[in-house]
Each structure stands twice: as C-alpha cells, then as structure tokens.
Amino acid sequence: MLYVKAPAKINLTLDVLYKRPDNYHEVEMIMTTVDLADRIGLELRDDELIILSSSSSIIPNDDRNLAYQAAMLLKDTYKVQKGASITIDKEIPVAAGLAGGSSDAAATLRGLNQLWDLNLSLDTLAELGAKIGSDVSFCVYGGTALATGRGEIIQQIPAPPPCWIVLAKPKIGVSTASVYGGLNLSEVEHPNTKQMIQAIEESNYELMCKSLGNVLESVTFKLHPEVVMIKEQMRKFGADGVLMSGSGPTVFGLVDSELRISRIYNGLRGFCDEVYAVRLLGERNSLA
Ligand SMILES: C[C@@](CO)(OP(=O)(O)O)[C@H](O)COP(=O)(O)OP(=O)(O)OC[C@H]1O[C@@H](n2ccc(N)nc2=O)[C@H](O)[C@@H]1O
Ligand SMILES: Nc1ncnc2c1ncn2[C@@H]1O[C@H](COP(=O)(O)OP(=O)(O)O)[C@@H](O)[C@H]1O
User: Fold this and answer.
1) Which of 12, 135, 223 is the best mutation target for the ligand 1 pocket, counting ligand atoms within 8 Å of the beta carbon and taking the most?
2) I need a labelling partner for 264 at 20 to 30 A (CA). Which of 131, 146, 237, 275 fits?
3) Total structural domains in the chain?
4) 159 CB contacts (<8 Å, ≥6 apart)?
C-alpha cells in the first residue's frame, strides 16, 4: 500500500478581480498548506477498476468523489491498463473552505503517478488537476503560492514565517458556487496581495497578520452570521490575525506564541465542535 498525504490549505488573501465570460471569477490569492491532512492509501489492482472507500460517511464513494475523478482522468488520459483501490482517511472537515476534496484529488494524482510508473512532472499533474477543480493545481504542489486565473495558475513563493494556526469550523457547510454567485464586487474591500507577498518574503509576521484579507467573507457572513461571531471570539481569545478561509465557513487565527494557543483552542471549543491547532507546512517538499 502506498500512502500519500493530502493537506488542507488556507487562503491568506483572496481577491476577486472580475467575473469572466466563462462564469468563473478571476482571482488573485495567496494559499498555503497546513498540517491537517487526509491520508490517501493506494493499492495496485490486477483488473482495470478504480474502487474507492473512505472513513467519512458524508462524502460520496462514487464518481462524484474528486479523488475518483482524478484517478479516472489520469487513467483515461494516459491509457493506463491498470486499476487501483483508493482509501481516504478523512481528517479535513468537508465543505469547509479548506480544499479537502481538491487535496484528495491532487494526492491521488501524485500517488498514482508513482504507483502506475507514469513519471509525469508536477506541472503536468497540476495541468490535469485543473480539469477537476480550480484548487487542485495548487494542491498538487502544496507549499505556498500566489494563485491567479481561476486559481489554477500557480507561482511559488517562500514559506511564511513559522507560526501556529487555530482552525474553527461551525456546523454548516458552504457551497463555493453560491458564495461566488453572491459576490457584489462594487461593495468589497480588496486585500493588499503585494503587501502580503512582501510580508512573507521579509518573514514579517506582524505585517502578515495585518495583510490578511478575503473578499468572500462579506458574502458568507451575510449567509451565516455565526461565522462573524467565531471571528470575533478568535480575536477576543488572543489570535494575532483572523480570517475566513476560501468560501468558508472555517475561520483561522494566526498565533506566534505557544502559550496563547491553548487559550484560543479551548475558548473556541465552547462555540465549535471542530477546532484544530496546527502548524503551517509552508514548504513544497513537506508533502511526503
Ligand atoms: C474559494 C476557493 C478559494 O481557494 O476555495 P474553497 O472555499 O472552495 O476551498 C476556490 O476558489 C474554489 O475552488 P474549487 O472549490 O476548486 O472550485 P471549482 O470546483 O473549480 O468551482 C466551483 C464553483 O465555484 C465558482 N468559482 C470557482 C472558482 C473561481 N475562480 N471562480 C468561481 O466563480 C464557480 O461557480 C464554480 O462552478
Ligand atoms: N474526496 C472528497 N473529500 C471531500 N469532499 C468531496 C470529496 N470528493 C467530493 N467531495 C464533495 O465536494 C464538496 C466540497 O468539498 P471540500 O473540498 O471539502 O470543500 P471546499 O471546496 O469548501 O474546500 C462536498 O460537497 C463533497 O461532497
């Protein structure tokens, strides 16, 4: 059995520039991987079948699963005459703004590339991944990147300064399509992406906390006011910077002192069932 790590991502910035004719939105966002991961197990099959199972009762095990789609796409594109059994140990909350499904798809592409001896480059896998979803290309590489286009154009940047992340997800799932659909670009406050890149390049933790911004927050906040409350609590318990990840509803807080983590973690447990305290992964080579 081959095991592949599929880490969650957070968006340190998420800006939308305009709505495109293909109905996607042109984005500019800084994404980084965190140490909360699903584990994908892959086993070669003698027949040509792709069989998927998972530890989660809420994700589909059929062709709606993004990891299944990734396996089929790879198999069809390269006419692979082998099969695979795929198991997903789910740790990342589902429909949370943490790209769990996209990361499972990306890890499946990386793992099957190895299992099926395809020798494809990460760039090729990322290009293929974009056909499954906008976040899959980033997840193929991991690490930290500026993502543009509809999210599939990836430019690697250095790892952010080391810190802890507290993640808190309220008991609601959010549909990415409806959040993008509810965005009114004339109302939003755009984040300063350049300043965030500068903060990361200079390893300036304070500036990084100040530069956090996500234009989708306002839409999700209107749909689910409890997300605003979690953001306020996260700040109150002492996080240095707080933001909603992706289309939400997960809120993350940055903390650079280990002493404050348990206070924030325990404080948030009073409001949310799903709370995690994790490290940033930040570097591309931390996917092993
Ligand atoms: C918002 C973000 C930020 O990282 O993440 P999540 O909240 O999903 O984790 C991403 O842009 C989500 O990427 P992903 O979840 O892969 O989206 P896709 O499957 O490609 O698209 C789902 C739907 O979202 C909308 N969509 C997505 C990406 C984009 N740049 N513009 C869009 O308008 C479209 O309506 C599309 O049909
Ligand atoms: N392997 C998978 N893991 C999680 N969700 C999946 C997976 N495959 C398909 N899905 C579907 O994708 C949707 C979004 O899931 P997810 O990737 O967790 O959220 P987000 O896009 O908010 O980061 C869910 O409704 C889920 O049913």
Assistant:
1) 135
2) 146
3) 2
4) 32, 143, 144, 200, 280, 282, 283
Whether residue 135 lies in the annotated active site: yes
Indicate whether 190 and 145 sit together in one domain. Answer: no
Q: Are residues 47 and 88 in the same domain?
A: yes
Distance 90 CA to ligand 1 centre (A): 21
Both structure tokens of 21: 């004719």
DSSP state, 219?
H
Q: Does 38 share its domain with 122?
A: yes
**pLDDT tens-place string over residues 171-195:** 998 899 999 999 999 989 999 999 9
Supply the range of the domain harboring residue 118: 2-157
Residue range 37-65, pLDDT digits in tens: 999 999 999 899 999 999 999 999 999 99
Same domain, 132 and 225: no
- pTM exceeds 0.90 for this model: yes
For this structure, is 9 an active site residue?
Answer: yes
Residue labelled with tokens 């795929």: 86
